[in-house]
Specification:
Shape: elongated
Helix content: 40-55%
Strand order of the largest sheet: 2-1-5-4-3
Radius of gyration: 33 Å
Low-confidence stretches: 1-13, 91-96, 574-584
Number of helices: 23
Strand content: 15-25%
Number of strands: 24
Structural class: alpha+beta
Oligomer: single chain
């Protein structure tokens, strides 16, 4: 089974297969289950199929008493169950989890580090690493909380959050359905009681008729004229009694579609009743709602009349729509995640092959005179490698495995420095307008990534303009609250700095907008684009914890708005490290080179030996440790691949530092695994070189690290 809490698959069954099975089983259960107690048990059975969710419980919330009641639990140690149970949602204790949930109706994901110190010590003894609390909402009220715990993972991935929130939305919809069903059952029970009471007199019927929470109307069986309606009918439709009595439903126009009324009349004439038909009704002031419509013949003292009932199911339908929207978001997130993993894996393996091709081509060019025909052919091969490497970098950016070193920067400065270059890139037919906002907040981001995002958005905008047109670049500050985000799918609460790129080109329809961030999707003609530009933009923004919103209509242009989290810090001026070292200066140091791809090991060894370095090549971590133990002299530097069989690069470095405490390290890889980087973001003390690399790039990095 895949690790749904983690970032990498750990078995044969994919994350998507696991989610689909859970979603299928739970959907069947929710549609079939009519008992709330059994519903909670089904929910816990479903979530515990997710690997790394180790325990779960459901608590009902009593808003009047401000207490919780445990109704279902699985695999919770007694001490942890007692800790969760003790968290009553007292408004005086604003930091309590349930208070946050009931006020904002948002889930809470808390790693152990976020708990008070006293609580941390207690929770550490039972091995807890993360507590997740998700609200179950019905009729806009939080009626229960689903608690999930993990003893193995501290963070909850965003796509798992979407999945879990989709589950609780389904539960809310199922509760609405069960309540509507129970209300209908109660109404039917009331009707049976009415029939019994008729023998005692019509007064008892009138009392039940008037106090019923269900809309009721009595009509003449022959003329369909309304004889009487109850208070619920009048309140729901907005009419007065005088307006209704003596009229027909056709006169009131309460059926949104008159053809539906005619269909119901035909059914009634054929079988003598109408049972549980969903209809759309119109209120007096014009608003509409959905209801469950039924009609029966009842005997009163005056004779037979038609009793019509209707139960408002608008809230249930709204809950189902919200559930469907969440399921759509989940499916999109799953698709993008799967494509990202595939893209990252392909780029990693392809980069290894490119490293061998580029290295051998570069060394061969050094051995051939430029006048020879073979020199030109090798030059073309080298250019093809460079273009291929750029494609893999775009794939890595989409997969969020690109290596970055973020700095605190002013977005206005970064964009302003690119404006003249963009004008030359876009050409004279495009009017480029630059509208920076004063007093713009700072962001934390790799400056080169801003350049990538800006260039790709501007090129995409230019290609959407048929002839002469205009592109506008804007920046600004914005804050989104919980209420705004609840009404706008994809938005995140908080303070952000935005970058907007707008054009007056062709625009896009809704279907195209759902695909534009997928790699290799393009609307351009063959040979006009790779379909990777917007995919790379998407990956970069997600890697930096931001989000992107697109607004476009056919023939009305498009506007891409990127929102990056506001960062409170001072701007850091970038420095070019290549200017600080002599790129191809020779060296006398000893370097331990570890790479499990023999072709890369061979070519990297040759590149460094040509500069005078002494190289100890090793094809595995075990061989590297053996060389380190038997080597009689010093080892100044280790250059190691990140991902290798049996032992990764960081673990190997730790072992070598025991033997050589002063040894320095450079990691190399087709992409950075989380072994040395957190989602591709390097720590300040980590040195990294990306495959494929040239001799100049490799020697420059080695010189830089050795001179520190």
């Amino acid at each position: 089974m895949s690790s749904i809490m983690g970032e990498e698959p750990c078995g044969q069954t994919s994350f998507l297969e696991t989610v689909v099975l859970i979603q299928r089983d739970l959907s069947v259960a929710l549609n079939a289950e009519n008992d709330l107690s059994a519903l909670w048990e089904r929910l816990l059975d479903a979530v515990l199929k997710i690997e790394s969710i180790d325990g779960a419980s459901v608590h009902l919330l009593d808003h009047e008493q401000r207490v919780t009641t445990l109704v279902a639990t699985r695999n919770l140690p007694p001490k942890l169950a007692a800790y969760i149970d003790s968290h009553d949602f007292d408004p005086e204790q604003a930091d309590i989890t349930y208070v946050k949930i009931t006020r904002a109706k948002d889930p809470v994901y808390q790693p152990l580090s976020s708990f008070p110190l006293l609580a941390q010590e207690n929770l550490k003894t039972i091995g807890l690493k993360c507590l997740m609390a998700l609200p179950v909402v019905n009729h806009n009220d939080v009626i229960a909380v689903l608690n999930l715990v993990s003893f193995s993972e501290e963070q909850t991935p965003s796509w798992l959050r979407i999945f879990l929130e989709g589950l609780t939305a389904q539960i809310g919809g199922a509760i609405a359905r069960i309540q509507s069903l129970n209300q209908l059952v109660d109404s039917e029970a009331a009707f049976e009681k009415i029939a019994d009471e008729l023998a005692l007199g019509e007064n008892n019927f009138k009392k039940l008729f008037e106090i019923s929470p269900v809309m009721m109307a009595l009509t003449d069986i022959e003329t369909s004229v309304t004889l009487d309606v109850n208070g619920t009918y009048l309140k729901q439709l907005g009419f007065t009694r005088e307006e209704v009595i003596g009229t027909k439903t056709t006169d009131l126009g309460i059926f949104f579609d008159p053809a539906v009324r005619e269909e119901l009349i035909c059914i009634f004439k054929e079988q003598g009743f109408v049972l549980d038909h969903e209809v759309k009704l119109r209120r007096k002031l014009g608003s509409s709602f959905h209801g469950i419509f039924s009609s029966y013949i009842v005997d009163l003292n005056e004779g037979q009349v038609v009793l019509t009932t209707c139960i408002d199911i608008s809230k249930r339908i709204q809950a189902e729509q919200e559930r469907n929207e969440l399921q759509t978001q989940l499916a999109q997130a799953q698709k993008m995640e799967s494509i990202g993993r595939l893209a990252g894996g392909v780029a990693h393996d392809f980069n290894n092959m490119l490293s061998v091709i580029q290295g051998n081509t570069e060394l061969a060019l050094k051995e051939i005179e430029p006048a020879q025909p073979l020199f030109k052919r090798l030059t073309q091969i080298n250019k093809a490698v460079e273009r291929s490497a750029e494609i893999t970098r775009q794939l890595l950016a989409f997969a969020r495995k690109q290596t970055v070193a973020p700095k605190v920067i002013d977005l206005n400065d970064a964009v302003g420095a690119m404006i003249e270059m963009l004008r030359r890139l876009l050409g004279e037919d495009i009017d480029l307008a630059w509208k920076p906002t004063k007093k713009l907040g700072a962001i934390l981001m790799d400056r080169s990534q801003i350049d990538q995002v800006l260039v790709n958005l501007c090129i995409n905008a230019r290609d959407a303009i048929p002839d002469v047109g205009k592109i506008t670049i804007e920046t600004g500050n914005v804050t989104f609250d919980d209420e705004y985000c609840s009404l706008h799918v994809g938005f995140i609460p908080g303070e952000f700095v935005f970058l907007a790129v707008s054009d007056n080109g062709y625009g896009m329809d809704k279907e195209t907008q759902t695909k534009i961030f997928e790699p290799f999707f393009t609307t351009k003609a063959l040979g006009k684009g790779t379909g990777l530009g917007l995919a790379m933009v998407y990956g970069i923004i997600k890697q930096n914890k931001g989000f992107i919103n697109v607004y476009s209509e056919p023939n009305k242009g498009a506007s891409f708005k990127i929102y990056m989290p506001l960062h409170n810090g001072k701007e850091e001026k970038a420095t070019d490290t290549e200017d600080l070292v002599s790129p191809l200066s020779g060296g006398k140091e000893t370097i331990l080179l570890v790479e499990d791809e023999p072709g890369i090991l061979e070519i990297a060894t040759m590149m460094l030996e040509m500069q005078g370095y002494t190289i100890l090549p090793a094809v595995s971590p075990a061989e590297a440790l053996s060389l380190a133990r038997t080597n009689s002299g010093p080892i100044d530097l280790i250059i190691t691949d990140v991902v290798m069989p049996n032992m990764n690069g960081r673990e190997l470095t730790k072992h070598l530092k025991v033997l050589y405490p002063d040894i320095k390290c450079i990691y190399m890889s087709g992409y950075t695994a989380n072994v040395i980087a957190h989602h591709g973001v390097l720590d300040e003390d980590v040195h990294f070189i990306e495959k494929p690399f040239s001799q100049k790039t490799l020697v420059t990095k080695v010189s830089e690290v050795l001179q520190q």
